[in-house]
Predict the 3D structure of the following.
Amino acid sequence: MVTLRINGDEMSLDDVDPTTPLLWVLRDHLGLTGTKFGCGMGQCGSCTIHLDGRATRCCVLPIRDIDGMSVTTIEGLSEDDDHPLQEAWVEAGVPQCGYCQVGQLMSAAALLADNDEPSDDDIDRAMSGNLCRCGTYTRIRSAIHAAARAMR
Ligand code: FES
Ligand code: FES
């Protein structure tokens, strides 16, 4: 049996096949559908969550490999969608179709937790695993700078 702490709550996943990727446990077993399925091959970043605070793609991550670890999803990022990044995203009108944006936010949040004054290069490096077919990269970078300013 696998036990995870998900958005602060300890959960025993005794009715779930331990080879199931975390993405499907979140979406299908727990109803946390904010985390998105994109490529399913660990290459697009749309399924990014935090695993013990680190930005991690969860579409190819069997839960048996992360027993006892802490998971944060977009639903647990803030109380009222008011993380400085979420506010900066709205202010800058970042999303276009929106599909990649949860993954983008989770990668950005992990970056700012470690570095409250990231350079453009820091941002580009941290966000390089998150693809956006709509090309919102410039607005993402501006919003990360704005959120970083708000958090300092
Ligand atoms: S859906 Fe996980 S990286 Fe693309
Ligand atoms: S906003 Fe459409 S894929 Fe990023």
User: Anything to note?
Assistant: The two ends are 41 Å apart (CA to CA). The chain has two domains: 2-77, 84-151. The pocket of FE2/S2 (inorganic) cluster (ligand 2) is lined by residues 95-101, 132-134, 136 (CB under 6 Å). Residues 2-77 form a domain with the Ubiquitin-like (UB roll) fold (CATH 3.10.20.30).
